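Q: I'm writing up a methods section and want to include an example of the input and output format. Could you take the sequence below and give the corresponding predicted structure tokens, formatted cleanly so I can copy it straight into the document?
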Amino acid sequence: MKKGYVSIVLHSHMPFIRHPEIKDPMEEKWLFEAMNECYIPLINVYDGLINDKIKFKITMSITPPLMSMLEDDYINERYTDYLNKSIELTEKEIIRTKNNKELNKLSIFYNERFNKLMDTYKKYNCRLMNAFKKFDKLGCLEIITCSATHALLPLLSINPETIKAQLSTGVQHYIDVMGHNPTGIWLPECAYTYSLDSILKEYGIKYFIAESKAVLYASPRPRYGTAAPIATPNGVCAFGRDMDSSYQVWSDFMGYPGDFNYREFYRDIGYELPMDYISPYINSSGIRLDTGVKYYKITGKTDNKELYNRDIAMEKVKEHAAHFSACRNEQIGGLYSHMDKPPIITCPYDTELFGHWWFEGPDFIDAFIRKSSESSCDYELTTPKEYLCNNPVVQCSSPNPSSWGENSDYSVWINGSNQWIYRDLHRAEEVMVRLANTYKNPNDVQKRALNQAARELMLAESSDWPFIIKNNTTVNYAIKRINTHLDRFNTIYEEITKDTINIKKLSQIESLDNIFPNVNYKIYEK
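A: Here is the clean output for your methods example:
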């Protein structure tokens, strides 16, 4: 008899980085790397489990911007070129490394890997959502939604209509792609505040994933901590992040990904080989970028890295998956006798951890699921939706406002480096609400302009931009994205109110920011 449940929840997100107006934009490589290292490898894991008749349950959020890009013709054409170049590079590497047995073995490994990625990509007609929709229909994968552009919702609460617009658009885009309503949602950055539960209920959301402190500090205090969901006053359930399982994967000093036998992230031939050799495989402007071909293992806290050994890394994966499973068994066993319902250990992670930052991550997921299917295991894998179906009685408790960012608050997204964003955003939000309440019966051109204004506002609201600014990475790009979307919004606003809409210019903006084809500006009405 199983004593409890474990729920793995993977949050899959990319900001909308579609740039047909730019030759070889560097930012789109963020998506292509995630497709190569995370999404397709996970698809291969799921297919392998199904082929081996291993039953499993896993949850993934796929945010609307990511769904949109995975379905986009231009993006998929660019990705096909990118993957073909990766295959070409590894073919050259096999020749270049022929006199070094260990390096040559690794170059063959990468060539086989990239070719397998291409085979899987073509198998699903160059549309990864075809794979995810298949797993959703089979019932082994539950896909949940997110807000439209991953906006940090509590920071938009000064204009409640904007929160409704973000959630309404996110839910509708999910329906447009998946063909059915979502049950759950990943609140961007797991950020919750008191006003959200009534809006979530309005759009049919049954549950959300919460930071541990949202549940542990809820009022009244939950009887079982994060080992069971709680229900908000409006009946929307919150599943709190389990911190023990989180530390084992996330932690810099004790997490599995730091094992010295795993692949080193920061050593890539894109930075190390001569420019005349590597130039066709990096940015066309000559900026060196990751190619995904990395020959070294972490080794230790040293610059003298040793060559990666795939076989040893896979043995470590099995060892860590078995340890992770044993820890969940121990947790479940300790909780089971003290609860009047089966405990659930909720394990939420960024999907990009598994494969991008931790190269062996998808293999870990595979090994853990296989270990969890063994009869000696005290738990079953489940999804939050399935858990609620089997355990509908949930303690009512109001979650504590929080996020899974630093300090469990919102300070990553509003601080001295990025607080200027919100003055301009809130001004635009007020204008959008006013437009929606003014133009009740627009003509066709006005309606197009109003819908595009809504798109530009939502794209400017993405939590990615203040996050990038706070972490001092591609700061200029983030600032440019905010200002570009707000400039487009303001131009459209002026042309609507002055009845001077430039149709050619509007068409150009529509072709660039083509997200949410079915958006309706009236979602901003009071």
